[in-house]
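Methods: example folding runs. The two proteins below were folded one after another, and each record is reproduced exactly as written to the output file, sequence line first and structure-token line second.
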Amino acid sequence: MRALLVIDVQHAIVECKDFQQELNNIESIIRDFKENEEPIIFIRHLEGDEKSPFYRESPSSELHHALKKYADIVIEKKTPSSFFQTNLSEKLDQLGVNHLFITGFETEFCCQFTAIAAYDRGYRVTFIEDATGTVNDEATYEMKGLDIRDFVGTVLHWSTVIEVLDQEEYVGKYQSSTKA
């Protein structure tokens, strides 16, 4: 069975810049999973520091209003990996999931770490590159011309163990096949 992970779609991240295209791509994939009655699991990053935008009581740590209505299952995490010290593995086992689709935010951290951790746990993993986003850019890493999302997607693709698609490729490969 397939499941969709929607990682860190929280106000603290989404409101940092224009992520409308990423949100649209994520929502399109969510709708496909909903239509096929497949699990959608939202991951929410939380921190213990009251000054952090990810502090549990902070409104900025809440799931973003654009997608919150789809959050039937929410797993809370404290590290970049959605698996580390969470009940995500148990939930996936209960649901009979063997194939995870990765979407969400902080491409080079939470999405990438979760994709690799999922592979290490034996899941088939599909990373939807343009259904991820990051607040960071070439200036953050002092690497002129760096496209973080493309870089992470290329690294994961070259690993040959994690499938990397864009939203349009997802539609062609998975959406049409599940409705046939």
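Second run, written to the same file directly after the first:
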Amino acid sequence: MPAIVVEAVPPRLRGRLAVWLLEIRASVYVGKVNQRKRTMIWTQVEELVDEGNAVMAWSEPNEQGFSFETCGRNRRIPVDFDGIKLVSFFPEGDEAEENNDDYDDEIPF
């Protein structure tokens, strides 16, 4: 069951998410969809996020029991650390905003 949280996204994305998922609180969407539909929904989120940001978490048969993805302008980014997905933070400020657009997966802790 995926959960998607969006912030500062255009109304058209919120409307699109409401077609497939239930908005249980402002900007928080949940629903029961298969992997193919979840991937399709996330593709739509990535295309329509504009200057906002989004995170999606879902159940996964791994050690953590879940997985997640992020997109848009956000200080938090997922980082794989020995098979476990953790969250890394960019420092606050304008420099962090610029680096957020072109980060690579090799961010040191």
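Comment on the second run: The longest strand covers residues 53-59.
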